[in-house]
Every structure is written in C-alpha cells, then in structure tokens.
Amino acid sequence: MSQQRPPLPPFTEETARRKVQLAEDAWNTRDPEKVALAYTEDSEWRNRDLFINGRREIVEFLTAKWERESGYRLRKELWAYTGNRIAVRFEYEYHDEQGQWFRAYGNENWEFDNNGLMRNRYASINDLPIAPQERRIAADGREGGPS
C-alpha cells in the first residue's frame, strides 16, 4: 500500500491552501530527504531547464540547490486548483557564496496521485539580484526583510 500525504484530492479551496502551506513549510526546512517524501517514487519535474525524475534525483537536486542558495526562505501562494491539480505562485530569497542576494519568482503546476503525493511538478522561475535592504522575507519566514 502506498503512503498517503493528506490533504488528498479532489481539493477544495481549504485543502488546496493547506497543501500549499505544507509544501512551503517543508521546503523551508531545506531538508532534501523530508521534502522528497511528498513526491511519488517516479515523480517527474521540470525545474527551469532541468528535467528531474524520481525521488533520488529530487534529493540530489535539492541537496545541490541548498548548498548554492544560502539563507533560502520561500513563500508560496495558491493561484488555482481543480480535482487533483494545484497551481501556485512563489517567491524566495537567497544569497550566493559571494553574498549577492537574489529574489526568485515563479509559478508551479502540480499534479497529485490519489494518495496526495505529487507526481508532476512543472516550475518556471526567474531570478533577480537584489540589495540586502530590498529583502522582503525575514530569516524567520515573516514578511518584512532581514531579522
């Protein structure tokens, strides 16, 4: 029997919002193993120009991502939902090893299996260099910049 990750589809506005918040919370842990458990074993991703297949590749991708992107903090917002699909908009901030801060903006389309595991994730993302004083997401995850 497959693992379940509530809330399960079909989504309501309430359960879609909850699913988005759970995803935001998980990604903000920056724990690749924990994050990967929300995806099917054979999950397919498109992340920028990369195509990622399965949990093992998800863990490898996220490990490398969070080694490069220091101070990573993410915000997700429900955009739309229907049946077993959710669309989100997001932004996150991070800095590189030289200390340059960036804000990344994007959209994701998610598709879930009946057990609430994400089987498809398609992400379009753009990065914008920002000055430290332009940060909008505090280190503790709240709005309002650095803390």
TrEMBL record:
Organism: Streptomyces pathocidini
InterPro entries xrefs: DUF1348, NTF2-like_dom_sf
Name used for this protein in its record: DUF1348 family protein
PANTHER family given in the database record: SLL0781 PROTEIN
SUPFAM superfamilies from the UniProt entry: NTF2-like
